[in-house]
Amino acid sequence: MHIRFDAGTLVLSGAPDAQIESLPGCRFDERTGVYRTEARHYRAIVELLRERKIACSDEARAYQPLECALRSDRTPFPHQKEALTTWWNAGGRGVVVLPTGTGKTLVALLAIAHVGRPTLVITPTIPLMNQWYGEMAHAFAAGGLALAERSTSAKPQAAIGLLGGGCYDLQPLTVTTYDSAYIHLERWGNRFGLIVFDECHHLPSPSYQFAAVGAIAPYRLGLTATPERADGAESLYPELVGPIVYRREIKQLAGDFLAEYRVARLDVDLTPDEMDRYTKARTTYRDFVQARGISMGSPAGWQRFIQETCRHPDGRAAFQAYREQKRLSLAAPAKIELLEELLRRHALDRVIIFTYDNASVYQIARRFLVPAITHQTKTKERQQVLQRFHSGEYNVIVTSQVLNEGVDVPAANVGIILSGTGSVREHVQRLGRLLRKHGDKQALLYEVVTRNTAEEFTSERRRQHGAYQ
Q: Domains of the chain by range and CATH?
């Protein structure tokens, strides 16, 4: 049997057709006249050939073992050791679920050192990619990384590679983003033995899947605090990275490894005039949706709603009504008045204000003269704001959704959610921004909800997590 890597697939030859077709995913490619299978089946195929004692010429793998001496003075916590051991005992494949602030990054660094193979770390954003780059550069500093096959006199290869954000530097240890990975993996999907999927709840999306499908890496580690997805695509984890092998929740680790916390819901009211406008807009929007049998709770509900508003004469009015009732409930003026009171109450705390949209962010930033972070904020400015927030020069920042994940703000101890989606994941991630241990801080998360509006149902839906029970 002969195996080679080709553009995210494996090409198999040199054996009877029936023998090749019995291997995982192998099908005859009419276009090129060869047998192919997705690269992710590499490990299963090699193990099956060994089991059947079939000789194999393997030209697919383009990497060698790697000695990684972890240079870290951090002592792993019990849950981190358990996570690594459980993952390794599961064959070095699977998802580790740990709350924000409990050291998922160190689990990955321990795994890299333990596996001893060239490793690709895939992250969802450029800032998080840069953060991982710094962690890996510190963990595997000069002299800590060398190809096992090299002689002891060879110069150690200590560079950490970056792919994304204008960088294209492929090294035995490389950090990239999901956007870069799925685009370029067909060229270097055979150069890594371990792939770490950070915030792996992004992985099952239709395009990002190729970051797993097109790679041969026999070892795979997924990291997330919130594995569930609204579309149910978490069911794809077993075939892309492996099943959930280790899980600890916020309440299990609060106190010892996370800050103690409290969650409080505060209700505000619309004025009679606002409520009248809300009711009329809501009725117009709901009548349109019901008349066309659209289920807004389904994965395709929003897409169908947009399509229908473009097709029907009353569609424009329905869409404007949707926006109006959304604006009145999520950005009620009473919320801003309550926010002023909360900021006065927590003048000596470090406060993060979360909103649903950028318009609310900039309104609050102007009203209270506090720094804002949105997707429009440049990386350098964002880092500067977060550094000043951590040092205490700023005690309040306001953001929309860009700080939901992958940002380390250990000084934050008060969170104020003025508006958000119904996503459980988003809500848990926002709570997670406050839970990292920092001295003896006590974390407090406020959720501000407009009474007698659809936001009450949204609040109930996103609080369906053990952290809020």
A: 2-58 (3.40.1170.30), 66-248 (3.40.50.300), 260-269+332-468 (3.40.50.300), 272-330 (no CATH)
